[in-house]
From TrEMBL:
It is an enzyme of class 2 (transferase). The lineage of its organism: Bacteria, Bacillati, Actinomycetota, Actinomycetes, Kitasatosporales. Keywords: Aminotransferase, Pyridoxal phosphate, Transferase. Its EC number is 2.6.1.44. Pfam families: Aminotran_3 (PF00202). Belongs to the class-III pyridoxal-phosphate-dependent aminotransferase family. This is alanine--glyoxylate transaminase. InterPro entries: Aminotrans_3, PyrdxlP-dep_Trfase, PyrdxlP-dep_Trfase_major, PyrdxlP-dep_Trfase_small. GO terms for molecular function: transaminase activity. It comes from the Bacteria. Homotetramer. It comes from Streptomyces griseoaurantiacus. Its cofactor is pyridoxal 5'-phosphate.
Length: 428
């Protein structure tokens, strides 16, 4: 029984391994955009298992590739040649937009960012980093040290010296009243000010759209403007595409491409969706940066044949079915519908997003105060209606996060929007 499992979970797992819902869910299977819990209840999945299910649950093409590979070998060794790893690396290098690209596979987004930090600090001989306020980059000792979202940064002891830059959140903070161009100019001034008062940092790391932070995005071109300043000072740009990669934003394959005026980042990190549930992360960088390490370094499980086979099948499906185009079309419809359905709800401060990455920010009616209790209540009500959502936000978790598998159909988008609008009405 799920209740027993919850008690056992609490008895043996850490308190900080947070669970969603008053009565947590035990998901036992999935198909397409739907999942079922242990009691047999069906849900429309608007969170894709925190964006890990990129295309669809139980996608037959991925299942087939995984079972065929499992029938041969799960993993040999990173010390031997590995055909699916080379093939996926070739695809990633080509898709990355980075010239002379090299790819290193890891098992998670945290480890991908950790590797990016190792590369950047070694290459630039500096342990000073720039990161964005409100950011999230992982849970290891190094990545919590570049995570600006205090709710997800459990220690202030860090081997890195990090300076936090304005710009990841467009609608709150001291520059919120400014228009796009003025906003960018103010953030650039802030960056220059930080750079003027410190040892040269190794890199700026940023999520093009902040994920855990509540799907907030800066005006297009912010990182291009940052890039010009960084380049002059020899500071690298790391784009954390763990949530924004694979066409989720609809307009582009990578989130950084909305800022592409001055070319690709120096380093791109990715994870989550590529394996469609299999644990794959990775780093792409120019050879000159990737090869700056002068000692051996391997990841025992980074690039196992079984995960690479899943990644290849998943990526092929995504490209052949133009799921980026689907994210743009269906995501656009969903955004419009949610905006219309919530237009007269004073608790909805903003419905924002790009493609299939949509945030609904909740406040106490008549104020600008974040309302985490409302977000939690809406999550529960939506679940009652058969819809799974995510939540996130700045220092208070007051935004609903919508990031379904990229095969979402127009009918499913409508169905989910109606359930969500009903949940909002019932609670607020
Ligand atoms: N970067 C971003 C932008 C993320 O959203 C996450 C996970 N939420 C990570 C890094 C860390 O990835 P993982 O949980 O796979 O370690």
């Amino acid at each position: 029984m799920t209740e027993d499992l919850h008690a056992r979970h609490r008895a043996v797992l850490p308190d900080w391994l947070a669970l969603y819902y008053d009565t947590p869910l035990e998901i036992t299977h999935g198909e397409g955009r739907h999942v079922w819990d242990a009691a047999g209840t069906k849900y429309l999945d608007f969170f894709g298992g925190i964006l890990t299910t990129m295309t669809a649950h139980a996608l037959p093409e991925v299942t087939k590739a995984v079972s065929e590979q499992a029938g041969r070998i799960l993993h040999s060794s990173t010390l031997y040649l590995n055909r699916p790893m080379v093939e996926l690396a070739e695809k990633m290098a080509e898709l990355s937009g980075i010239p002379d690209a090299r790819v290193f596979f890891t098992t998670s987004g945290t480890e991908a960012n950790d590797t990016a930090l190792l590369l950047a600090t070694t290459h630039r001989r500096s342990n000073t980093l720039l990161a964005m306020r409100n950011s999230y980059h992982g849970r290891s000792f190094s990545t919590v040290g570049i995570t600006g979202n205090r709710g997800w940064s459990p220690t202030s002891l860090s081997p890195l010296q990090t300076l936090y830059v304005h710009g990841g959140v467009r609608t709150r903070g001291p520059y919120a009243h400014l228009g796009d161009e003025e906003f960018i100019a103010a953030c650039v001034e802030d960056l220059k000010d930080l750079l003027g008062h410190t040892r040269p940092p190794a890199a700026l790391i940023a999520e093009p759209i902040q994920g855990v932070g509540g799907f907030t995005s800066p005006p297009d071109g912010l990182y291009a403007a940052f890039r010009e300043v960084l380049r002059e000072r020899g500071v690298l740009w790391i784009s954390d595409e763990v949530q924004t990669g694979w066409g989720r934003t609809g307009d582009h394959f990578w989130g950084w491409q909305a800022h592409a005026r001055s070319g690709p980042p120096d380093i791109v990190t990715f994870a989550k969706g590529i394996g469609n549930g299999m644990s794959i992360g990775g780093v792409v960088a120019r050879a000159e940066i990737m090869n700056c390490l002068d000692a051996n370094s391997i990841s025992t499980f980074g690039g196992t044949q079984i995960t690479m086979a899943a990644g290849l099948a998943n990526l092929t499906y995504l490209l052949e079915h133009d799921l980026r185009g689907n994210a743009r079309r269906v995501g656009g419809q969903l955004l419009d519908r949610l905006r219309t359905a919530t237009a007269d709800n004073p608790a909805v401060r903003e419905v924002r997003g790009r493609g299939l990455m949509i945030g609904v920010e909740l406040v106490r009616p008549g104020t600008d105060e974040a309302d985490p209790a409302a977000a939690a209540a809406v999550l529960e009500a939506a679940r009652e209606g058969g819809l799974l959502l995510g939540k996130g936000g700045g220092h208070d978790t007051s935004a609903l996060r919508i990031a379904p598998p990229l095969t979402l159909t127009a009918a499913e988008a409508e169905e989910g929007a109606d359930i969500l609008a009903g949940a909002l009405r019932s609670v607020l």
